[in-house]
Write the structure tokens for this entry.
Amino acid sequence: MPSTPNVTQLLLAWQAGDHAALDKLLPAIQPELRRIARRHMAGERRGHMLQPTALVNEAYLRLASKDVQWQGRAHFFAVAAQVMRHVLVDYARERARVKRGGGAFCISLSDAENLVTPRQADVVALNDALNALEKFDRRKSQVVELRFFGGLSLEEMADVLQVSVGTIRRDWSLARAWLYRELGDGSRHDTSLDTDSDV
Amino acid sequence: MNEDRWRRIEELYHAARLLKDSARGPFLAAATEGDEALRREVESLLVSGASSPGLLDEPLQMSGAHVSNAAALSGRRIGTYSVHERIGAGGMGEVYRAHDSKLRRDVAFKVLAPDLIGDYDQQRQDHLRRFRHEAHALAALNHPNIAGIYGLEEADGVTALVMELVDGSTLADRLVQGAIPVEEALPIATQIAEALEAAHERGIVHRDLKPANIKLRSDGTVKVLDFGLAKAVGPAASARDVSQHPTNTAPAVTATGVIVGTAAYMSPEQAAGKAVDHRADIWAFGCVLFEMLTGRAAFGGDTRTDTLAAVMRAEPDWSRLPSGVTDPLRELIRRCLRKDPRQRLQAIGDARIALEEILSGQDSGSVQALPAPSARRRSERTAWILAGVAMLAAIALATGFYIVSRPGEAEPLHLSMTLPQGWNLALSSSQGEPTPLVVSPDGRRIAIVAREGDGPTTILMRELDSPSARPLPGTEGATSLFWSPDNRFIGFFADDKIKKVDVSGGVPAVVCAATAPFGGGTWGREGTIVFSILDKGNYRLWKVADSGGQPTDALPDASTSKETNGMEVRPWFLPDGRTLLYVSMLLGQKPAVYVVRLDATDRVKVVETDSSNVQYANGYLLFLRGATLMAQPFDEKKVAVTGSPIPVVEGVQRQGAIPPYRLFSASQTGVLAYQVATDTATLAWVDRRGQTLGTIGEPANYKSIALSHDDARVVAIIGTPRNLFLVDLSNGVRTQFTFDQGGFPVWSHDDRFIDFATNFLLYRKPSNGAGASERLLPNEKSPALLFDRGWDDSMLVMIPRDHPGADLTVVPGSGDRTPFRLASTPQDKRIAKFSPDARWVAYVSNELGSVQNVWVVPVVRRTGAGDVRYLISGGNGGTLPQWNTDGHELFYISSSEMLTAVQVNGDGEAFQVGPAKALFPIRVSQAEGGYNGWHYAVAKDGRRFLVIVSSEPPVSIEVNWTARLKG
């Protein structure tokens, strides 16, 4: 069990005002999260859904002891959302690369259902768009990260980002609109996962 | 996206969301004051924000074998087709290989995604009918260079286009390998042109021509795919609520919120949401041709928005065209890529003829003989503007003798240069700091990281003895420049790599991979590049050979203590090529310059500094105290300071975080370049010919101005976030008037009050600044806009309501104050001003179609009869109307950005409009692409105008700068 004991301490230290503790939390929980994610992905079957929130919850239960308060949990999730974003985007990218193989034309009938789904391409495109958003509005990209990759509630996000729930709601609304527009069609053409070269 | 722009988008987006759908358009039209780009941006966000739940609306779940329903088509039989494997998927749907059992041929079977067809039965039926219609028209296209459409198959609940199956790779695949040689590209282009010509003859426009839609068969045949499909799957006329908002010119949006067309190949008129004809294909053809020859998209950007911005405003980088491109070919591409469709090549057949002639080597200049639209020459844009005296000095400098052989004796010499028009120093970047200004060690060249408009950062190279700067090809995205010690190369950071480029030309080469953010690089005499990158939460120094290889720890033996364990940025090699200066930043401590030898075990603190960059030149250490550049004598042998610091330049431009990078750079030969931070706009009085009569006060970041009725004061919008400031015109003294954002200022008739808006709520405050703000229209829940106040204190407002047009509304200043509406045309009203006698209102609207014009309407309570309106700006476009105080003249800014005066007379019942006269050019469009506020105001005598004059601060160059330290 890697570096389990200090996660609770780090969370408590963070709550006590030691801001550096949050930076240390990331490396502390990363191996465990990745391990759990890998195990879930290896065992995936058709139709089996991989839920990051469930993974993070599992990691939280393993790593943090019961006496960490609710705020601690939110911050744990916030940090975990960053890890999950990397894990899931890498995963989508990897799947796309493997499944695409030598090009769409050599895929046999039985493989057809394992083709890159637009959904996986979307995750990568979303990640790119989030990076672009972060360049001019970091908080909004964080809100999306926390919600989409970490499954945080409005209240949890407000607590993590130290703003009001109303601000989170407004941030989410605009970030969502901006991302949907960016993801319209153009952004996908720019990624290596372009699947539009048809016929 | 700059901060101010994004804040405004955010403010408008949230204000508009409070409104009913039908009131949003008119509100935005007015609230953006004619900034079309801003309005479109917010409208498109409202559209995508209202889209049905999608990817983002549930926390991500990943499924191992997530398969869309359509995938189940494989192996199925649909009508006479047996469907085989899926061969692609895209925005329109999925494509399968299928076999037509009747005609015994393989076909491509394009299944339309259900969401493109629509959710509701009625919508679905409409859409299908239209789609069928289009498919039949397209099926009539029979040409060897067009992938044919065989028909539409509707069976077993599946709607699919049956198309010619074309083997081979796409042009997009081919372009991944880079540019295509001219002799190979020309036959491809000719066949594309032939395909377009055949389609255009039948009135069919492709609308989405791009490399991914062009197939290259192994036998050399080119096939253009998906003709007209963008339109076929595009929005139905009824798909948007046109009836409620007929002037909506937002880009065509499909039911799924997708703008039809691919950003990088979309013509400016398409991007602007205007009507599109065959000339959009000619544009796209130009883009494709450019990309084939250069290997790079003609227009690009990080985001779709950036790309569209480039399409609308930027010029392609013509210098990328390889040397094999002849003048006629270059001219052909230029003609295809004219922003204005009327100035563009008018028929693709002309392109085909030109290409054939170029191919057959005739090159008889026939391209020049094409119908030649008048065009402004743009070559001067890339010219640096240098004062004549400075030119001579620069030529003297080029001999080298003057500087190099006799430092310390010649007098210091100041040069000043401005960037080419439309270019700005790149002062911000998320990928580390751009180091936007570096002088070569020999002092003969300056490399600058700049961007044109919103375009990508690019290295501009300026030889001091040449009047013009040139962009270095292949350096898009470059930041953090550093020179090689032999002056031949520039190292830079781009695309998560360290690259080097030969300054005399050539393609940049990768030195090694590196991650952003980048903390600067330096190139030593012994062929070592040392750079700083953020790794494990701290900036550390790494080294790599300039020939490439794996980076290693730059200071493997140097011990760190608590004190020296700061972030190490901006390394700088001393002339020995072994000793480094760098800036160390440790939280809670002042940044300091350290010196260390690459093989040493200890680091030595030299001096504290207030800048993240440091350098050594001509026996001096250059660093910052506050915003002042200091030079301190430094013995490079003893590696120690030997005297006291001397101030060299005050107020050096900053960029970036804490501590900021400061814009200075010195050669080893006595040339020092820097930019001094100056606010970029000044207020000036000008006469009716545009001649400057005098400037007022200190420069500031002026965005919009309104003059008091007595000409004594101006209320101006300044800064980010935007606030109101009062400027006393007699002495230029400026005082802040609002502190929590402010905009849309209007003087009361007696100048005692200023009305303004904060977050689209209206307030009134005494203009002497004393006293509290009072809320206007306190019961109004909707965002409201106040355009003007009349002499009788009547208000001219727009309150978005749930009916089309959201009319101009007059709230009388006396009597029962019952509001009444003016000019109840369905079109949006943007800007409105009372005439001095408040009997008329001049306003801006697009009642003649897409162009904004200035109109005048009488201020009368309507009795049911239609409005009488008078067109002031002649129909060719005009905005920002202002009345002369005598009421007999109206000023506005014409579509060609001329301040224009029109004689008018409203003394009687009818309004008389006389001839218009252009007075002087006035620039209203900003780098962000839109009109950005009132850039002029009219004095009460009607003979003078107060205008905002803006400029980019020049880059200063001092030759022999050390001379003045020795006096």
Notes: Chain B touches chain A through 69 residues (CB under 8 Å). The mean pLDDT of chain B is 79. The radius of gyration of chain B is 32 Å. The first helix of chain B runs from residue 3 to 17.
